[in-house]
């Protein structure tokens, strides 16, 4: 089967894929059987001396002079993503992992008749290929390597998709490796995420935070209102829960004297999946002693804005907080972000005053009139659902929504001046919740009361409610200093920086 160009390398049926695999398996056998071809189809190592990126950086100027020669011999390896074989001269594009490409020219004059024939017979699109030769500019001015020696570095048995046709979303998600090979945006997402994580850690280090690790398997689920995944430990013969949040353990660390701690972790919530939710996701949580939810909001703004600076490195927006989303939209994360009242903005949008004293019956009547359904309604749940209905979609700039109902925030301190409200904010960016922050509840007596209330909610059928965590209460009884805390979804932070959905920001998302 011919594979001379990217176009006819597209497999459009199972029969074609099967036939290509059969042919490639035969080539694998030939490579393994013929010692003169190097180390077989999968050699332990090939004599690489340079990278494709390095060759381009050093000799890229040769392209200004078609036919120029450098006199330098290099050895590079990359994946064959384009191929054109003619009589005495073969061309191949070798692609590095970051998408950088260089042309390899395999000529009769340089490698001889036998080597050229073997190249044509054995090298396919998708193979990893090592070439050694002089760096030149082709007659058309393309930076190239005039090959003197070549060797298959890894034989691809499955054909590549058409490099000039867009993969559908299902393929991108299920076969992310193909997405990374083909699509610049996919590779950019990985780099942006890595730079973002490095930026977050640097911001924390600059402010004297310590990174810690907490258990992923827990005997009790807590730290958030969410349904957990349940598993079984054979060693302990007990049920365990996959972590829904690290909060209760990070607070134990603060009790122990670690005044500024953070963790970037994997959390698991046995709930729905959509454009902003994934059952498995990355979360940042941080706690800072002797501050409150205002101070932790300042920290969160700095974390996100520094991440935007990191994401913009190497772009025409470098040095600014203006990020460019995948669809070309520019979004400004700079400046000081607004802080608005949940009750105040809800009252304004609903056209009537709503306070912590507003009854459940009144709130339910408003919800019914607006067609807002609330499962197991109480005051707090109704207020939050109505706020989302009336206000959330109108937020465009990054905004801290301040002061939440006490019923929905069992781990948060009472507001210092407004009864029935806790000192909590949610940060909304692009219309979704990016982060949440608190003045932390440190009174073990009040915390026990909140846990008991949660247990009552669980008895009513709320499968997101928490249990009474005696071990955490014992820690609090030893004294936790005043503190602010925050949690931020890493996948959602990437959504804010790139404009993509959550399945695009997670390298390997869970799919059914």
TrEMBL record:
Catalysed transformations (reactions): tRNA(Lys) + L-lysine + ATP = L-lysyl-tRNA(Lys) + AMP + diphosphate
Superkingdom of this protein's organism: Bacteria
Residue positions binding Mg(2+) 1: 426, 433
EC number annotated for this UniProt entry: 6.1.1.6
Cofactor: record remark: Binds 3 Mg(2+) ions per subunit.
Chief location category: cytoplasm
Gene Ontology cellular component list: cytosol
Pfam families: tRNA-synt_2, tRNA_anti-codon
GO molecular function: ATP binding; lysine-tRNA ligase activity; magnesium ion binding; tRNA binding
Cofactor(s), by name: Mg(2+)
Gene3D superfamilies named among the record's database cross-references: Bira Bifunctional Protein, Domain 2, Nucleic acid-binding proteins
Compartmental location: Cytoplasm
UniProt subunit comment: Homodimer.
PANTHER family: LYSINE--TRNA LIGASE, CHLOROPLASTIC_MITOCHONDRIAL, LYSYL-TRNA SYNTHETASE
UniProt record similarity statement: Belongs to the class-II aminoacyl-tRNA synthetase family.
Identification of the protein by name: Lysine--tRNA ligase
Source organism: Leucobacter edaphi
Gene name as annotated: lysS
């Amino acid at each position: 089967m011919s594979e001379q160009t990217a176009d006819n390398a597209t497999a459009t049926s199972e029969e074609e894929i099967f036939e290509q695999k059969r042919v490639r398996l035969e080539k694998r056998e030939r490579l393994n059987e013929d010692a003169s071809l190097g180390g077989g189809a999968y050699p332990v190592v090939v004599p690489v001396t340079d990278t494709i990126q390095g060759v381009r950086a050093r000799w890229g100027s040769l392209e200004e002079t078609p036919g120029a020669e450098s006199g330098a011999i290099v050895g590079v390896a990359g994946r064959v993503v384009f191929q054109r074989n003619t009589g005495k001269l073969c061309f191949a594009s070798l692609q590095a992992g970051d998408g950088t490409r260089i042309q390899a020219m395999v000529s009769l004059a340089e490698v001889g008749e036998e080597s050229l024939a073997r190249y044509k017979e054995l090298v396919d699109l998708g193979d990893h290929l090592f070439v050694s030769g002089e760096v030149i500019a082709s007659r058309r001015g393309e930076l190239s390597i005039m090959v003197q020696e070549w060797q298959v570095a890894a034989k691809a048995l499955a054909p590549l998709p058409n490099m000039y046709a867009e993969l559908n979303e299902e393929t991108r998600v299920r076969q992310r490796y193909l997405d990374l090979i083909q699509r610049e945006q996919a590779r950019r997402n990985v780099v942006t995420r890595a730079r973002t994580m490095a930026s977050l850690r640097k911001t924390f280090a600059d402010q004297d935070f310590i990174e810690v690790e907490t258990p992923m398997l827990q005997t009790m689920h807590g730290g958030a209102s969410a349904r957990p995944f349940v598993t079984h430990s054979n060693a302990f013969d007990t049920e365990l829960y996959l972590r829904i949040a690290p909060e209760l353990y990070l607070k134990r660390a603060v009790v122990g004297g670690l005044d500024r701690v953070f963790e970037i972790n994997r959390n698991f919530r046995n709930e729905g999946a959509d454009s902003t939710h994934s059952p498995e996701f990355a979360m940042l949580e941080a706690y800072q002693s002797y501050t409150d939810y205002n101070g932790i909001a300042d920290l969160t703004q700095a974390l996100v804005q520094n991440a935007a600076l990191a994401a913009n490195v190497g772009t025409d927006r470098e040095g600014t907080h203006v990020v460019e989303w995948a669809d070309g939209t520019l979004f400004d994360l700079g400046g000081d972000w607004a802080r608005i009242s949940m009750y105040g903005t809800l009252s304004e949008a609903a056209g009537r005053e709503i306070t912590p004293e507003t009854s459940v019956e009144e709130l339910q009547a408003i919800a019914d009139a607006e067609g807002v359904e609330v499962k197991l309604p109480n005051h707090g749940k109704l207020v939050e659902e109505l706020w989302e209905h009336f206000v959330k979609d109108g937020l465009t700039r990054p905004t801290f929504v301040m002061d939440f109902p006490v019923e929905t925030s069992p781990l948060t301190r009472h507001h210092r001046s407004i009864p029935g409200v806790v000192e909590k904010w949610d940060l909304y960016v692009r219309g979704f919740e990016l982060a949440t922050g608190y003045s932390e509840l440190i009174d073990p007596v009040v915390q026990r009361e909140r846990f008991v209330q949660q247990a009552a909610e669980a008895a009513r059928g709320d499968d997101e409610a928490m249990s009474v965590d005696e071990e955490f209460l014992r820690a609090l009884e030893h004294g936790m200093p005043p503190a602010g805390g925050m949690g931020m979804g890493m996948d959602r932070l990437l959504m804010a920086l790139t404009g993509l959905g959550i399945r695009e920001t997670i390298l390997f998302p869970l799919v059914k």
